[in-house]
Amino acid sequence: MARLLIIAGIKDSALTIHGSLQADxxxxxxxxxxxxxxxxxxxxLQRAYMTAEAIRRAQICNLEEAPKADLSVLQLPVLREQDxxxxxxxxxxxxTNNSSKSGKDIHHAQPSDDPDFKDxxxxxxxxxxxxxxxxxxxxxxxxxxxxxxxxxxxVSHGIILSTLWKCLLKCFAKQSVTLxxxxxxxxxxxxxxxxxxxxxxxxxxxxxxxxxxxxxxxIAQQLKETQVFQPQLALAGxxxxxxxxxxxxxxxxGKEHLKGLKRTGGGVGSSKFDGxxxxxxxxxxKRKVCSNG
Length: 293
Prior knowledge:
The chain is of the alpha/beta class.
């Protein structure tokens, strides 16, 4: 049976059954690592919020030490996916055999005279949104004085998360961004920091932000062995927002939590998730009583 792929940027599409299983796996994975999130930010679209809630629930149920008492998911419209305008909710179009133009280009030309036509959100608009999120939420937390490390989760969507990463990257001075030892990178040992590649559903980017120290011999050796292409961080007229801070990339597109998880056949895995339904696994697991948090 052929699947019709629909463009869903700001369209509030529900999480699928398979997506719900992936989200639960992600929450359990973080809990097993002992991560205690101080804050969880999420897009206000269902598919992101439900994923964030799975992470929050796992914090409550799995940690031996009680999580932050008032831990909740802060839903923010600013974290929504790119707005595809006229194309929201419409199917993807493939390139036609008799044209050098893509199907998108052909269909873009059709509504150009429509007074209600709304174009796709620009890269500049997305960057403005992500800088707003950084200024209002992330940078104050990073710059704040605290005696304990803070773990923060940001749950959003593929395209806008890539934009958030580029905006965050520009907050750091050159050579203050490094890779953790053993991290897998692209072809021929080269990695462009601005372009880390696509992320799988519930794949995650793990970052360690800390005060900068003198480069150790291990980092110096890493930079010799790995060609890391730094972006244009300090452009003319811009100011680095986090001087004295450094960032280590710990994981790119982390998906250890998805090992062994297979999509249910017959189209079931792509069906809308119903929170009142239970999985087969739940009938064989011992019930665990959790607080509501």
